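Q: Could you write out the predicted structure for this multi-component system? I'm mainly interested in how the pieces pack against one another.
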Amino acid sequence: MTARQGGSALQQAPWSVLENNSPPLELLSVDQLEAIHEASLSLLEEQGLEVMGARARDLFKAAGARINNDVVCLDRELVLELIAKAPSSFTITPRNPEKAMHLGGNRIYFGMVSGPPNVHDCINGRRAGNFDDYQKLIKLGHSLNAISLFGNQTVAPTDLPVNTRHLDCYRANLTLTDKVFSAVPIGAIRVRDAVQMCALAHGLTMEEVSVRPVLVGNININSPRRLDGAMADAAIELAMLGQPVIVTPFTLMGAMAPVTLAAALVQQNAEALFGVCLVQLACNGAPVVYGGFTSNVDMRSGAPAFGTPENAKANLAGGQLARRYDLPYRTSGCNASNVVDAQAVYETQMSLWSAVLGHGNLVYHAAGWLEGGLVASFEKVVIDAEVLGAMAAVFAPIEVNEEELGLSAIASVEPGGHFFGAEHTMTRYENAFYQPLVSDWQNHENWVIAGALDTTQRATQLWQSVLANYQLPMLDLACGEALDDYVAKRKNEIGNNDLD
Amino acid sequence: MTARQGGSALQQAPWSVLENNSPPLELLSVDQLEAIHEASLSLLEEQGLEVMGARARDLFKAAGARINNDVVCLDRELVLELIAKAPSSFTITPRNPEKAMHLGGNRIYFGMVSGPPNVHDCINGRRAGNFDDYQKLIKLGHSLNAISLFGNQTVAPTDLPVNTRHLDCYRANLTLTDKVFSAVPIGAIRVRDAVQMCALAHGLTMEEVSVRPVLVGNININSPRRLDGAMADAAIELAMLGQPVIVTPFTLMGAMAPVTLAAALVQQNAEALFGVCLVQLACNGAPVVYGGFTSNVDMRSGAPAFGTPENAKANLAGGQLARRYDLPYRTSGCNASNVVDAQAVYETQMSLWSAVLGHGNLVYHAAGWLEGGLVASFEKVVIDAEVLGAMAAVFAPIEVNEEELGLSAIASVEPGGHFFGAEHTMTRYENAFYQPLVSDWQNHENWVIAGALDTTQRATQLWQSVLANYQLPMLDLACGEALDDYVAKRKNEIGNNDLD
């Protein structure tokens, strides 16, 4: 179960994939699921989505959609025909093929927090996102085996020029880690740069990576019912380059979606399917993921809330919908706390358990998310990695055979005795149990002597130690130089031009 | 969903019972479950349990058990015959019949922390358990709708004489709350006092309460394979007085049970079934609950660990075993943290989710447990109540009908607009979502202005406010006097005598 990593101070379970082979937890009845499905098809047919990008509108128009004032309505037959083209599973292979993600089925992968404008740790406090912290968070996520994916920006590098920062980020993503990362899904240019840099880092041609996905891109629907032009262009480009697209409506009940769960799911489903259709129009059979991000707002203040019971129900129901269409499912681990405290954890656990029980194949924001996504937290990364590792251990198979059943081991200990010294114990104790990263099981007295540190304080120590012991993953020298040359060339080409 | 309670400062969901009508999460295959079942019957047949009490040994002997040096071995036929007599569900009716517990099926009830020698709150610090805190914790648990049960002692009242403190506790349990509580399961005398005081408080005779359970009692097996005499006597007395017994082996893997999960489950199952058999021998068809309390120790230090992946797996598997015998199932919400922090919460969530997904009918220690059960924490009670309320909301049914599906509501909002002012929102917003007790969803700026309190600090404010607004439940004056008279009479009878 556990293995001490060569050269690292961190004792953790090896990189492995959580497989939840138990049936998913389904709160919607078959009839309820069908009612939501039918209502969302009616929504697409009668109300449609506003599409801001001409390229996307042209694709829909060519497919026979009805378009009026940029609002695109899709007949249900067309929708069903298009979503049937999408594959039910596919593989994304990063630089290190051992860290490939096989999206679909019962496999569940966890991603780092993605996109916060701010960053926080308990030594340096809360500050605007910057490229130094971006890179540290990549290193931290790379070192933690529970993490399989870097979404778009661990934190926004606001100290870099907007029009070229994607190049610096991609280079960091391709040198500081060998795991899957997301392209910056804003327009076609940034996506093409991502795929080209991946090809260089992998030593492959663009043709080769077009049939062997190397990264992923997540687009949001600007709920309710609006598809942004830059997002649409990014999705189209990703599909045309053979790279998977995640389509995630941003449906906060009471704000960007109706206040009832059923209606929010109708809207989420319609918007997600709309994006899936666009991807299929851009490229027949392109890999695409059904994304759900339905939570609620605090109706007293309008503030977003995450890790609520409504969020959990939506995570579970989203899985039912994605499976209804045989699509891989992306969901999220979130919370709305302002500090790495009890609330941060219980909200995250609520969203995480529902993500895992709902068979979310890809759990975004699973490590490091704080303040409703406004902050990437170093301490939270560590604590979440602990929880993700434990969660994987819960779903690891149980061994039952004569030795494991241990009748003779039990017979070897007298009534009221103990098993500490039993042979059955001695031969197994090192790997018998999940070994925690940051949990402290000392008794009160020893814990006080050791400084009475709470989990967040211990997490501060741990991320520092992980970064101090960080090991750069191997990269072919020529590939590294090709990346550097590409970034220099593109920065020169872009100059001070606006990319969008 | 939510209701402001009359006269209380606390806004919380009304008292209701969590029903998990989804299939339980089952990690053991049918074959694995049967292998554990068979091995535990072999254990009872070949190794047996040491029984310290003559009364229990006599019952086993009369039933044809083989006894050698106080070790009682049971043939599998006898075991299967006895456990088949136990009911699959039953009701415990406390003073307030609206707070009755219907144990069995898919219903899940949550209990307060039970038995810690110490108590902690963030104002007064850590201290030895005492009767003042005992009563405050009863008041707190009474005020929180998520709590249905008081186990044996919210905290040990170490300032009261050992031989009569049960009387003071019972009076507090019968006056400060009207919910179900546990007898002190140490010997027959304390159990009989509990039932007699319940009868007085309910205005019923002992004959009447013998066919209408009014309380519960939990006995532990002193694992491995030893049944304590005082516990056995308590179980027998409870059964003979018609009161339900919970039988919970204390099987920490690596210490009091083997290091492998399969073997620990074999031992847990054998020990639990042994207790169930005793209860049935004491009274044919007596209500009894299958208890599981299998976790692991830290193999480096021997310290107990809770809320681990192994604990979660055992909680889930325990449910499979209890259902195998058609018995109600008791499990627990636990953690080993020294402070109300991230670890306290993620460990508790791990045990809680597995308890709920495993269809634990009764979740002991679900609120307020800290330090592996050595401390009852006021702040943790509040935070756990939040989580328990949220958990109940997750499993509340989802409504799906035309109004809830909200197609016309969606049509009423333009693309990119918002639903804040929509009629569909306005008519529902007050009760649309779970309203938290202690979560804070303010943005960072407002949170800082409000004092930058973390969840534990807010919990300190909340338990103080709950206690300040505590309302004594109604009790018939004559019943109250009868209780006082009984306590006075029994204290006089007991004098300085040792009860055990």
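A: Regarding packing and overall arrangement: The two ends of chain B are 48 Å apart (CA to CA).
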